[in-house]
Amino acid sequence: xxxxxxxxxxxxxxxxxxxxxxxxxxxxxxxxxxxxxxxxxxxxxxxxxxxxxxxxxxxxxxxxxxxxxxxxxxxxxxxxxxxxxxxxxxxxxxxxxxxxxxxxxxxxxxxxxxxxxxxxxxxxxxxxxxxxxxxxxxxxxxxxxxxxxxxxxxxxxxxxxxxxxxxxxxxxxxxxxxxxxxxxxxxxxxxxxxxxxxxxxxxxxxxxxxxxxxxxxxxxxxxxxxxxxxxxxxxxxxxxxxxxxxxxxxxxxxxxxxxxxxxxxxxxxxxxxxxxxxxxxxxxxxxxxxxxxxxxxxxxxxxxxxxx
Length: 308
Hints:
The structure is a single chain. This protein has 308 residues and is α+β, with helices and mostly antiparallel strands. It contains ten helices and 14 strands. The protein has a five-stranded mixed sheet with strand order 4-3-5-14-6. The chain has a four-stranded mixed sheet with strand order 8-11-7-12. Helix 1 crosses helix 4. The relative contact order is 0.13.
């Protein structure tokens, strides 16, 4: 299948913008990439790239070939996945992606349960707060909190990821409890730095009316665990996801305020399981989705009485 390597090299040159970059991605030499592109051009009898000292760009023939090559390679990849996953028993490597804190708390404990049930299955959990490319990083299933699930993937809604505004009882005793959202301006308020909500908190009531509240703090974090620790230490009021603060609320270590208002953020309100269409019927993905359904239904673990 020598032609397949040439087609993949061509697509990678288009993605990266140069033969040298494509060679680095494919772990080969620039000369190998150049030869493969030359072989393709001779085979088709057309030039696929316009080359200059500064850049490389597609010719009209190259643009057409690129469109068809992408579809062909995706079909080949789908066929490979389907053939390798023939049969009903989950096997092989299940590669999952999740955000760091949520994955550590709720997804990592699932892996021993799954591999105990399915001895032919191995699991890899990639924890990152960055968006992963399902195809490029060979991810079977990614857990994403998002407003807009990817259009090129299957997105299965799993659970409502609620957030609350809370602080320790000791903080409220020392500094007073805000009676209206606008009184938050007189308190140190903590939320994730990178969500653009460290200066403005957006809250919505049951009727859909939204209120925006300016907030401040002398120090901020881009890590949700640091936000949680600051709130638990009594340094201020936090906007926190219940998957993280739910047990502390149940134990009375934190107390929430504004029960009639739901905090909003740019990531959305729901956690989705996202996977490429060719994984829909793959047994290892199916059994993992079944475990997720058990985890979150009828209520997620952080809302159960034993969470305390």
